[in-house]
NAD-dependent epimerase/dehydratase domain-containing protein (Hibiscus sabdariffa), 512 residues
Amino acid sequence: MMLSLDVRLQRPLLLSRCICIFWLESNSKMAHLLSTSFSVKISSSNRPRGQTLNQVRAVLPNSFTIKTSKSHFKRLVSKGDRARKSCVVLATAVPVSKEVSANPRYGSDGSPSDSSKPQRVMVIGGDGYCGWATALHLSNKGYEVAIVDSLVRRLMDHQLGLDSLTPISSIHNRLRCWKAITGKTIELYIGDVCDFEFLSDTFNSFEPDAVVHFGEQRSAPYSMIDRSRAVFTQKNNVIGTLNVLFAIKEFREQCHLVKLGTMGEYGTPNIDIEEGYITITHNGRTDTLPYPKQASSFYHLSKVHDSNNIAFTCKAWGIRATDLNQGVVYGVKTDETSMHEQLCNRLDYDGVFGTALNRFCVQAAVGHPLTVYGKGGQTRGYLDIRDTVQCVELAIANPANPGEFRVFNQFTEQFSVNELAALVTKAGKKLGLDVQTISVPNPRVEAEEHYYNAKHTKLIELGLKPHLLSDSLLDSLLNFAIEFKDRVDTKQIMPSVSWKKIGVKPQTMSAN
Ligand code: NAD
Ligand code: USQ
């Protein structure tokens, strides 16, 4: 079926409102990326790799064409079996606030009142790296799960000419596969959480007991490409989170917000990093205050703004929230994503979205020298993706109290970049790889040699059993990278975004 949408319409009347929202939002917020005439093919198969930004001409569209099948449109809002929820995402009914006592899943003390009933968890950003693994894990553990995602990340990859190392199926095929293998349904709402009407409908349709919010622009380099990407990052992240807070207040007062923050909010202070709060004695008086934040990119700063907004609404409205200040995640396989190739998670290795250890493993696999930025003493907290899903489950199972803004530092070990490079070199040699390292002039503004000692005990106290970085994990990640090395576009490996060169001029990022 060929379908044309005129995006000048104030309110497109047709079909799935969700996809209209997605594209309209994309158009208004991502004008830096789109073009006056724009043709998009959406299909369940993967797009061709290595597409350049020039190939996906980038100017704001007056109209665009979506080629898809009728059945795909039907699946844009993939619903569970419950009849009461049919078409709710398409509806615009004004929701009614619910009283706390009217929520049968919580007792008067705010704790879940019926432990036998699976909790309903909304995973925002559930098509992404952490969100996909988490959604499957929670579904496997008996939670009723809905994924909310605008799919903007797939669009960004497309526009920057990037691709995951691993081939990833469309979200629809992923969910079909999950259902076929496990019999479990994960509901799907495609839309942008910055669109409050969409979010309201989604909340009223799904009625979450917990919301896990991964749905943000998460790359520091992306936020430092140019002014419009910086603005997009902060609008997308801060407004999205603000909308989630308002949705909880309005429709699901007892819902527990589990928000993905980042260790990078703290920066690299010359004292120990505490979990969220620090007790200070100043001029003879003592207080426990939020730990000072020194973020070092427009992305990391968006997380600081989120944290402040969440803390404020916990105080003002009694919202219950857990801020998971997560370190850098590595790895790709979890028990659930390993069940079938269509469930495979993404693995980013490029200079914009790829993170240190994942990048180093892919670099080693293709014989590219490991790209240590500057002196390589930059130290961060790291964790295996299998621990990301475990930590989120622990946070949901042990909710914050009403009004509590709880902060957990979510990582298991800390490493400098040089230490990571040495570990990958050693593991690569065991596999017969010739692994070299180069020092790349640091594209970022950050301390390259510094003190770093961050606390991370609260999740352990709740029962986290860490998967520490081991030879076997490195071996498996390297072998995984070797398996897919033919998909690597080596031109995407070197960093291309400079913290100092960012300006107002839109930057064209393309694979040459
Ligand atoms: P990702 O880019 O793979 O996934 C993010 C998902 O959110 C994407 O599917 C994207 O389409 C969706 N999204 C973005 N904006 C949205 C919006 N406005 N409405 C609906 N959906 C939206 O990122 P990730 O690596 O999975 O990271 C997830 C979260 O975890 C982020 O908040 C990130 O800051 C945090 N985090 C990630 C890491 C890491 O190493 N990957 C480390 C620490 C914290
Ligand atoms: N680095 C290199 N070489 C590389 C890539 C990175 O030396 O090829 C260095 C960076 O300069 C930085 C460190 O490694 O000092 C970590 O960089 P990264 O790209 O792995 O991670 P970062 O940009 O901090 O962001 C990632 C996620 C982000 C999350 C953050 C957690 O993309 O969403 O918030 O990790 S944290 O670092 O704890 O803030």
Observations:
- The CA atoms of residues 92 and 201 lie 7 Å apart.
- The first strand starts at residue 2 and ends at 6.
- Confidence is low (pLDDT under 50) at residues 1-113.
- The chain has 14 helices and 18 strands.
